[in-house]
Specification:
Blueprint lengths: L2 E5 L2 E4 L4 E8 L7 E7 L5 E8 L4 E4 L7 E6 L4 E6 L8 E8 L7 E4 L3 E6 L1
Parallel strand pairs: 2-11
Antiparallel strand pairs: 1-3, 3-8, 4-5, 4-9, 5-6, 7-8, 9-10, 9-11
Length: 120
């Protein structure tokens, strides 16, 4: 059974930092993508930062470029999100996702989410 478990959310003041972690387990095949999405109150889920094994590439939302960094421990199917320079508009539930394939359709497994709250 596929399981993704996030940790590291919390509350921080604007300008602060947080580091999210996510460990994936139960996959019977190579996990070729891992990443982070978020959903703010009243809004849809959006991609934040994603990492793909094919081409060893990463992708960031324009709103977080230069502030957030995604990294992976491929051997242990773990993904991290280092968030610096946090802004109140970063407040959301952050979801870890993973899977096998190409592009955003790769992400078929999801974590339960972790709350990040940034106060001004």
């Amino acid at each position: 059974q596929v399981q993704l478990v996030e940790s590291g959310g919390g509350s921080v003041q604007a300008g602060g930092s947080l580091r999210l972690s996510c460990a994936a387990s139960g996959y019977r095949y190579i996990v070729s993508c891992m990443g982070w999405f978020r959903q703010a109150p009243g809004k849809g889920r959006e991609e934040v930062a994603t990492s793909y094994s094919y081409g060893d590439s990463t992708h960031y939302a324009d709103s977080v470029k230069g502030r957030f960094t995604v990294s992976r421990d491929k051997a242990n199917n773990t993904v991290y999100l280092q968030m610096n320079g946090l802004k109140p508009e970063d407040t959301a539930i952050y979801f870890c996702a993973a899977g096998h394939g190409l592009g955003l359709t790769c992400f078929t497994g999801w974590g339960q989410g972790t709350q990040v709250t940034v106060s001004s």
